[in-house]
Structure formats: C-alpha cells, structure tokens
Amino acid sequence: MEELEEKFIRKIETISMDFMRGTMQEINWSARLIGIRGARGVGKTTLMLQYIKKNLPLDGSSLYVSLDNIWFAENKLTGLTDEFIKKGGKFLFLDEVHKYPNWSQELKNIYDDYPDLHIVFTGSSLLEILNARADLSRRAVMYTMQGLSYREYLNLTLNLNFPVVSLEEILKDHVTIAGEVNKTVKPLQHFNNYLKSGYYPFFVEEASLYHQRLEEVINLILEIELPLLRKVDIAYAARLKQLLQIIAQSAPFMPNISKLSDRIKINRNTLISYLYFLQEAHLTKNYIKIAKGITRLQKPDKVYLENTNLQFAFAAENTDKGNLRETFFINQVGKANEVEYIEEGDFKINNTWVFEIGGSGKKNEQIKHLKNSYRVLDNLEYGSGNKIPLWMFGFLY
C-alpha cells in the first residue's frame, strides 16, 4: 500500500489548479458513493485530483489509486480498503474501475461494510452500474463528464472567467450576452480552433500531437473498451473505424443499413447494435425522428460524431461545414437538454424550442410558421430577434 500512497502524493504535488472544469461544481461531493463516467481524455482523473488537492488534507485520510495499476495483479481492492480504513482512511478515490475484474461486486461490499467511508470512482462511458450480482444503481450518484465546452476552452486558453449561461437566458437575452462577451474577446477568432482541436483538455500538453493522441484514444475505445465491456469482436475494430470515417464525411449521415452492412461487411442487426455501442462510448450521437431515445433494435435516422474534433480526426480534408455546425450544437446543448431530430427545422429542444442551424445567410422561411423557433447561425458575432450566433451555445456548461 505504501507504494500506492507515494504515487498518490507525487500526483497531487504536480497537479495544476490553474483551471478547473465546471463539473467540479455540478457534483454533490457529500454523497457516500459517487461515480463519474466519461470518454477517455475528457479529464476525469484531473478532476478527482484537483478536488482532493483543493478540499482534503494530505494526512492519510485520503487516497487516490488507479485500478489499472499493476499492484492489483496480486492484491485485491477489498484488502486495500480494509488496510486504508484501519490507518484512518475516510476518502477513497478509484480511477479506471472498469479495468478491475469484479469491480462492481467489491465496490458494493466496500460500500456496505464501511458506512463511514466516502468513495469516488471513475470509469469508461460504457460503465454499467446495474447488474444482477452487484446493483450499484441504488447506492451510487452518477455523473457523466463531457469534453470542454467552448466557454471552458476560452477560459482555459485565455485565462478568462466567463460564467455558464442557461438556454433560457440565451433565448431571452442573447444580444446583451453577446455584447458582454465581445467586450472581452472576439468569439469567432477562436471558434474554428476549438472545433478542430479544443474539446479534449490534453490539447494543452502538446498541440502539434493532438490529433495523434486523439487517434490513440479512439483506438483504445474500439480495440479495448468495446471488446472488454460490450463483447464487440476485436476483428471488427477496423470496420468500425471505417464506419466512423463515413459518418465524418457525411452531411450528416443518414444510414442505409442494408447498403452499409454490405459495404463494411457487418451483419445488419450487429451493425445496429454497434451503432448503439458507439453512442454509449461517446463516439457518436444517434437520432430518430421525434423519439425518446434509441433502443438497440432501432435504426437511427441520423448519426453524428459526438464532437467536432472527431470529424477532423477522421476526415480532416473532407469535413462538411453543415455537419460541423450541427455536431457542435447538439454536443453543447445536449449535455443538459433533450435533443430531438425533426422534419421541420433541424432540432427540437426539451419538446419546446425548434432550432434551424446554418450559415450566416440562412433565411427564416423554413421555420417562420413554427412557434418558439430560432435560427442558429455561424459566422455571427451578434444576433437579433430569433437569429442567434452558433458560438453562443458553447456557453451552456
């Protein structure tokens, strides 16, 4: 256990506190069992270490460990926890829990056996907390972490402190909000950089290697996480990457399952399941016309990549501008709102507001007869009336 404690202290000493994600304020840290799901690279580890450094004493009462550490090849989590408690432990932070066999059963036992212990754990977007042997759904408070919003990207890169703006505030007062932002920064000046390489926080480490690093993240999801957590045949990894490239080059992708199945040589029903798995892994977003979610047996009507950076990773020379705009909008708005794909307009939010996404010259003809309808337009610093700049929806979280 001593070597794990030493590694924890070294990590805490080197972690930067200059910028913290908005997720830090969203989490109820007083809960006894907290789970944080998210795609690789969105900053889950950094978030936990920053919370410890900011809020907890380094007196032995707190411990951070990653469950992919080789120490766990010969040692059990329950044994570590017992020793930790006997030495005065109160706060246990567990990273990458999906890498540890039988993690959910041991975590359930730890939660039940040590009622004074607070536990925070992180894992893949594919993490399941509901199963027959160890149902954590009644015990754990779960959060999902996305990549950086455009607001967070500006705050991080320019050392600014823009606050979160609600969707209702944008719809009601976007002209005033745009004026306040433009006093500090020209939002369009940095927007394309964000769309290309600003979603995953590791861009600050070595910008020139960003897309290489992103490709490594994608490969780990396709070749390790999907086979491990969804039993996807690893032989299909290359075909799934081909599918993601097709989605990236589309405007947007409206799948013909039969043709696609023939093209990438995957059985039709298997392909539909894999589209669902890709969404769970935060690589895609699937939409059915006016439908509450999507089941594993439904063919989606439209498929987007989860964020715009993925489009540049898969199709840097062939990114479709319209697809980029829509991908940005649903990624930023969809974090805390229900997004539906519709025939008239592009999207309906929270079953109330209709949005048409386009370039600055997009006319109002398609949606002018619809109640609560708005045009969301690219390349605008300011809007007017129901015409709102696209970049502004990046301030929602």
TrEMBL record:
Coiled coil: none annotated. Residues 30-146 form the AAA+ ATPase domain. SMART domains: AAA (SM00382). InterPro entries: AAA+_ATPase (IPR003593), AAA_14 (IPR041682), P-loop_NTPase (IPR027417). It comes from the Bacteria. Pfam families: AAA_14. This is AAA ATPase. It comes from Gillisia limnaea (strain DSM 15749 / LMG 21470 / R-8282).
